[in-house]
Each structure stands twice: as structure tokens, then as C-alpha cells.
Design the sequence.
């Protein structure tokens, strides 16, 4: 029966374990010197070799003919442990056997001497899943086990293990395997399996694996199913990644703030079954590479890519400032957090791209800095701003008007006054509004006839525009208050008594208040571009 590559090529001795020399050399030396501890704790991220090293250790301490601390893999004990016929090595999954009863079974079995091997070895995987009662039941046996018993605990979340357990174990921290080590191992396995794999593809597999050799071999197994030469395109397709060309084009669209082109790329990738969350992750890694190029003298040591991609990275980084790159990283990271809980991942990705292309939509300081840098860049490129010539009309000088009496205005009924009091009155007179200097006398007159209206008009003023008397009052209740017929009649009567003539009354609205608030930066950028 076919065996997947990560199982078929699982290391059988410490020398075959990739990227964990600081651990394998120590374990081998302990076995050679006979200073083997009774309990070990292996911790680290997935696919870094914890369970593999535990099985190698179980064979090495029981091997009849060990070689420099490594199992020979030839004696009957080594072969029996490999094929599962020797029951003195017990592997327990704590995720499904996490109760007190499971641990009590182990404690009872540990009292019996091994049948075929020298030591009875218990490998407890995902040990952090044990319950509190199970941990407490294991404490005494873990501290003082029988001489023929060894414990190897493995976990990916060491912070969940009680300190009482940690203090009783010899701890080994497994590091993420470097991309170079993963690529080397993948090339070796591909050569042994007669898989046509390019070096560029091996590095891409190593980068996608993110420090987990098991993930890298699983991806290699998936790519080999195509039956063709494994190229970066095949690896990208198998992993659901966007090709590098799409990433560079997408970043260029972000730089040019071309949302239309960016959406076209996202649509193409979505139709090609590209995972949107993985696309954002790759985009985040892309800007991370640009950041490293901007800040590090020798970025080749920190960026895993082929030479052609490095040249493209360096060329593209020249179009970005460090502040702009950091802003993009922050926006993409926030988008990734939202993607995990989003119903429609494509829409969330498109929203993230819109934020990248439009910093003015954000109100934080980093977005404001982006907009200022945009202005500086426009000025730096030498774009000339031509002044817009406008015909400036001289302000109309106030002329003394004849004091001849004006013809009396037509009678105004209550309904027409209410309309004039609630909407600005149109006036064809080009003259400037003249302050009404007798407004204080009108207020004093209202104190005798309409005290509530006097309180509303506190701090108000009035202007004359042709045959209109426009009242400027900041009290928001004034328009509704003046609609009442009693108050309108009292105000009209007071104005007539003070001035000796009848004015058409209305509400004064200043021209600056009628304009919508504008974004000064957006207006300046628009003027420069035009």
C-alpha cells in the first residue's frame, strides 16, 4: 500500500532529523554516557520533529546495538518498535485520552517490567490536553517513576502545562526549521522518489511550509500527483497561492491607487480558486519583504526567494517610502483579522484593497501621514501648479441713498410670512447685506408685547437686503417658534413701529454656512492634479 512521503521518509535516527541539531546531539550524548533522564518534555510548533524524536529516543534507549547514541534499526527490538509488535513503547494521544482513568491505567501498567525491551517508554502527545485531574494523577509517578519507565511528553502549547509538570521534566524546545534546511530535505526526498523538482520550487515549498517539514513533504506529495516537472506555478496552484506576477501587479496597482486594476486582479484570482485569506497572507509577506529591503543592508539573508524575484523586490521598493510600507502592513494585518470572521472573504479582501488605495478613508495618524507624503511627492516631482485667474469684482461701495420714502409694500398675510421665515429669501439686489442698526430697539419693543420671543432672540442680529429684513438667530428653535401666528404678528408689529415701514421678514443664512465642509488636503491634491 502506498505510503505518503512524510510517513515514508520520517527520520529513523537522530542524524536524519533536519534543523534540530541542538536537541538531537544532546539526546545522543545522554544515551552514550548513560545519563538518561526519566522524563522529557518536547515543545515546539507543528511539524518540527517532536514525535519523531520521541520515537527515535524510545528505540535508542532499547536498542541492542546502538551506534553513537543512535538506534541501529536492524536489531529485533528496533524492528519490533517500528512495526508495532513490541508493546513496551506506548504512544498515547492526550487529545482523546485526557481523563484521570487514562492516566491511572498508565500508572498501573508502569509497575510491570517490560517484556521485550529494556525500558517501558510512554510517549504522550499533545499533553497539554490533559485535564487538571489527570495532571495531578500523573505528578507522583512522573517525579519518581520505576527505574524501567521513561516518559516523553510532547506539546505545541507549553504555556498550558502546569508548572508542577514542567519542573519534573527535562525540557527541549524545537525551533522552526529554516527554509534552507527544509529545501535541502525536500530536494533529497524528491531525488530518492525520482520526482523532477526544480530548486526554485523547493524554496517555494519551504517558504509555504513556514518551518514545518511535515507540511513541506505533504505539499511535495500533492505536487507530484501532477506527473509533470514541478515548477513554481504547479506549487502555487497546489497550495492555492497567487503567482508572484499577480502579487507584483497588485502592489503596483496599490501604489498607483488604481482600484479598478486591483479589482480585476482579485476577480481573476478568485475565478482561479485562489483562497482570499492566503492571498492577503502572501500580500502581507510581500510588503514585509519590501520593508526588509528598505531597512536591512543584506536582505538576501532574511528573504527566501529566487534571484529574479529579489531584483523585482528591490525595484518595487524604490517606489515606496518606509512609512507607506508600514501603513500597508497595518491595513493588511487588520484585514486578515477581519477575514477570519467574515462571511464573504472576497468582499473583505476588496475592502482591504480599497483602504490601501485610499488612505483618506482612514482617520488615524498614519493615513494622514500618507496623504502628506503624497503631497510632498507631487511637489518633489516638479508638477507646476498654475494659478487660476478669476475676475475679481471690486466690492460695491456703499452709496448714500436718498431718504425719499419708498412705496408701501403689498400686504403680507400669515401664510406668506411663515414661508418667508422658514426658507432663505431670494434677492436680486447685488448690494451687500447692510446690518440693521435698530434691531436692539425692536427687541426692547418685543419685551412689552412678546417676552417668550424676546428670550429666543437673545444674541440675535438682523440685516437689510433690499426690501427684506433678515433675522440671524443661532437658537435652533427659532424657525419653528416663529411659525406661530401670534409671535410672527408681534415681530412684524415691533419692526413697523421702530422703522415706520413694513419689511418682508426672513431668516438670514450666511454663504459660508451653506457650503459643505471640504477636506483641505483632498481639495489641495485635486487642485494640484488639475
Sequence:
Amino acid at each position: 500500500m502506498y505510503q505518503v512521503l512524510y510517513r515514508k521518509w520520517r527520520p529513523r535516527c537522530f542524524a536524519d532529523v533536519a534543523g534540530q541539531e541542538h536537541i538531537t546531539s544532546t539526546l545522543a550524548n545522554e544515551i552514550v554516557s548513560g545519563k538518561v533522564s526519566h522524563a522529557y518534555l518536547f515543545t515546539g510548533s507543528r511539524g518540527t520533529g517532536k514525535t519523531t524524536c520521541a520515537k527515535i529516543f524510545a528505540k535508542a534507549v532499547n536498542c541492542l546495538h546502538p551506534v553513537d547514541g543512535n538506534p541501529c534499526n536492524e536489531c529485533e527490538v528496533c524492528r519490533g518498535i517500528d512495526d508495532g509488535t513490541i508493546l513496551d513503547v506506548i504512544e498515547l494521544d492526550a487529545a482523546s485520552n485526557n481523563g484521570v482513568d487514562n492516566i491511572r491505567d498508565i500508572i498501573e501498567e508502569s509497575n510491570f517490567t517490560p517484556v521485550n525491551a529494556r525500558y517501558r517508554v510512554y510517549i504522550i502527545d499533545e499533553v497539554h490536553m490533559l485535564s487538571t485531574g489527570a495532571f495531578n494523577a500523573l505528578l507522583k509517578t512522573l517525579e519518581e517513576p520505576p527505574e524501567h519507565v521513561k516518559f516523553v511528553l510532547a506539546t505545541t502549547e507549553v504555556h498550558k502545562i502546569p508548572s508542577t509538570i514542567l519542573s519534573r521534566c527535562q525540557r527541549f524546545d524545537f525551533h522552526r526549521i529554516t527554509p534552507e534546511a527544509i529545501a535541502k530535505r525536500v530536494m533529497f526526498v524528491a531525488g530518492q522518489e525520482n520526482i523532477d523538482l526544480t530548486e526554485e520550487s523547493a524554496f517555494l515549498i519551504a517558504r509555504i511550509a513556514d518551518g514545518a517539514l511535515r507540511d513541506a513533504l505533504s505539499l511535495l506529495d500533492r505536487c507530484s500527483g501532477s506527473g509533470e516537472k514541478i515548477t513554481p506555478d504547479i506549487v502555487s496552484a497546489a497550495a492555492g497561492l497567487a503567482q508572484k506576477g499577480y502579487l507584483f501587479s497588485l502592489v503596483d496597482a496599490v501604489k498607483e491607487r488604481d482600484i479598478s486594476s486591483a479589482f480585476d486582479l482579485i476577480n481573476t484570482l478568485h475565478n482561479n480558486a485562489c483562497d482570499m485569506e492566503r492571498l492577503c497572507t502572501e500580500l502581507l509577506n510581500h510588503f514585509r519583504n519590501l520593508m526588509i529591503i528598505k531597512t536591512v543592508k543584506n536582505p538576501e539573508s532574511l528573504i527566501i526567494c529566487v534571484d529574479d524575484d529579489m531584483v523585482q523586490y528591490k525595484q518595487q521598493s524604490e517606489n515606496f517610502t518606509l512609512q507607506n510600507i508600514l501603513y500597508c502592513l497595518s491595513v493588511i494585518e487588520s484585514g486578515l483579522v477581519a477575514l477570519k470572521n467574515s462571511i464573504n472573504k472576497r468582499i473583505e479582501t476588496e475592502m482591504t484593497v480599497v483602504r490601501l488605495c485610499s488612505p483618506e478613508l482612514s482617520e488615524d495618524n498614519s493615513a494622514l501621514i500618507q496623504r502628506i507624503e503624497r503631497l510632498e511627492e507631487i511637489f518633489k516631482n516638479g508638477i507646476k501648479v498654475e494659478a487660476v485667474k478669476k475676475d475679481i469684482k471690486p466690492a460695491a461701495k456703499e452709496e448714500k441713498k436718498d431718504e425719499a420714502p419708498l412705496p408701501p409694500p403689498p400686504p403680507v398675510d400669515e401664510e406668506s410670512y411663515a414661508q418667508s421665515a422658514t426658507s432663505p429669501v431670494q434677492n436680486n439686489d447685488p448690494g451687500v447685506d447692510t446690518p440693521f442698526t435698530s434691531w436692539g430697539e425692536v427687541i426692547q419693543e418685543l419685551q412689552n408685547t412678546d417676552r417668550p420671543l424676546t428670550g429666543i432672540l437673545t444674541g440675535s442680529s438682523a440685516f437689510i437686503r433690499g426690501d427684506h429684513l433678515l433675522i440671524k438667530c443661532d437658537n435652533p428653535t427659532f424657525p419653528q417658534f416663529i411659525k406661530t401666528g401670534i409671535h410672527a404678528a408681534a415681530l412684524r408689529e415691533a419692526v413697523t413701529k421702530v422703522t415706520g415701514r413694513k419689511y418682508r421678514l426672513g431668516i438670514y443664512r450666511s454663504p459660508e454656512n451653506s457650503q459643505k465642509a471640504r477636506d483641505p488636503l483632498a481639495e489641495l491634491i485635486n487642485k494640484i492634479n488639475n
Summary: The longest strand covers residues 149-155. Residues 244-380 form a domain with the Zinc Finger, Delta Prime; domain 3 fold (CATH 1.20.272.10).
